[in-house]
UniProtKB/TrEMBL annotation:
The lineage of its organism: Bacteria, Pseudomonadati, Pseudomonadota, Alphaproteobacteria, Rhodospirillales. It comes from the Bacteria. NCBIfam families: rRNA_methyl_3. Keywords: Methyltransferase, Transferase. This is RNA 2-O ribose methyltransferase substrate binding domain-containing protein. Residues 2-69 form the RNA 2-O ribose methyltransferase substrate binding domain. SUPFAM superfamilies: alpha/beta knot (SSF75217), L30e-like (SSF55315). It comes from Elstera litoralis.
Length: 234
């Protein structure tokens, strides 16, 4: 893991096992966090441990993955107004990291993704999430359609975001537990995923740009959902 926000959040997370903290001399001057005693290294040493071109800010952390969560771990303790986000084959770690950050901002109960054909929790994802990887539970599932049915059985209203949907998102929201399902850029939701959702909704757009990057779409959808459910104008 690398970058100030991601590393500080990981060190502060009691569920994260941290092994070694690397700091450049410049970064060490302003490092005040308690915990691991840092190892002071040259910037090129950190460069060796992170992806090429990564903006690590002179900070890197060797840490174990977070403990795996099951759907039941987050579902049955979820509040009556819980909000979930499901990703259908979104593989870009930058997109998933940005979505996680929006999930943290809008109080999402959990982010749910397939354990295959989806971004993994790399340092790049953690850096983009800017600490949100430590704040938002991430659940990996074998079958997304089966998971949607499990959510429905727990009184979660599942809405698939689809550009060709007949109704806008605001028109298909209802009080109670909500899950928003977003697909990969280009192909969107897979057919079975869309068919398993309770309903589909689109984000109204104007002009020749008819679609948004999936991370931007997630932020807009979460904002609209929170506004409508709180009784505000979308």
């Amino acid at each position: 893991m690398f970058g100030h926000h991601a590393v500080r959040a990981a060190l502060a997370n009691p569920d994260r096992t941290c092994r070694q903290l690397l700091l450049t001399p410049e970064a060490a001057k302003d490092w005040m966090e308690a915990g691991l005693t840092p190892t002071i290294v040259d910037r090129t040493e950190i460069d060796r441990h992170v992806p090429a071109g990564a903006v690590h800010q002179g900070v890197a952390l060797l840490a174990d993955p977070l403990p795996e969560l099951a759907l039941e771990d987050v579902l049955f303790s979820a509040a009556p107004d819980a909000l979930f986000v499901l990703l259908d084959q979104v593989t870009d770690p930058h997109n998933v990291g940005a979505i996680l950050r929006s999930c943290a901002v809008f109080g999402v109960t959990a982010l749910i993704m397939p354990d295959r054909n989806a971004a993994t929790a790399t340092g790049t994802l953690a850096k983009t999430a800017s600490g949100a990887l430590e704040a938002v539970p991430v659940v990996r599932v074998v079958n997304l359609s089966r998971t949607i049915r499990q959510l429905q059985e727990a009184d979660v209203w599942v809405i698939g975001l689809e550009g060709i949907a007949e109704k806008p998102l605001e028109a298909v929201l209802r009080p109670g537990r909500i899950a928003l399902v977003l697909g990969a850029e280009g192909p969107g939701l897979r057919r079975l995923t869309g068919e398993t959702c309770d309903t589909l909704g689109h984000l109204p757009t104007a002009g020749e740009f008819a679609s948004l990057n999936v991370s931007n779409a997630a932020a807009v959808a979460l904002y609209a959902t929170r506004r409508v459910l709180a009784g505000g104008a979308a």
